[in-house]
Design goal:
The chain is α+β, with helices and mostly antiparallel strands. About 15% of the residues lie in helices and about 45% in strands. Strand 3 and strand 4 form a beta hairpin. The relative contact order is 0.27.
Length: about 100
């Protein structure tokens, strides 16, 4: 599973790419816990990395990704009932608004 970003992004190679494919699958995803500074509970944080390929075909043919991006989110109590992959993809879609699921 991944998403196709229909907007243009700049690659680290100095080119602009549209239709790039982003996926969390080959990377680690975690939820960490920190004490809240006001000592009223804990803060939960989602941390993930998304790999970015030129397009889905590049991913399917096992080409190297062109970049990676970090996905970080402080989780609300409502978020705690959702799966980490669902949360991470939702956060990517906040950053990249012109996407389709692939």
């Amino acid at each position: 599973m991944g998403i196709i970003n229909n907007d243009s992004i700049d690659s680290p190679y100095g080119t602009s790419v549209s239709g790039s494919y982003m996926a969390l699958g080959p990377n680690t995803i975690s939820i960490g816990i920190e004490p809240n500074e006001d000592l009223t509970g804990n803060i939960y944080k989602l941390n993930a990395t998304a790999s970015v390929w030129v397009d889905k075909s590049a991913r399917d043919t096992q080409k190297r990704c062109i970049s990676c991006m970090h996905v970080n989110k402080v989780l609300s109590s409502d978020d705690m009932s959702r799966g980490p992959y669902e949360l991470a993809y939702a956060e990517l879609k906040v950053r990249f608004t012109n996407t389709i699921d692939a």
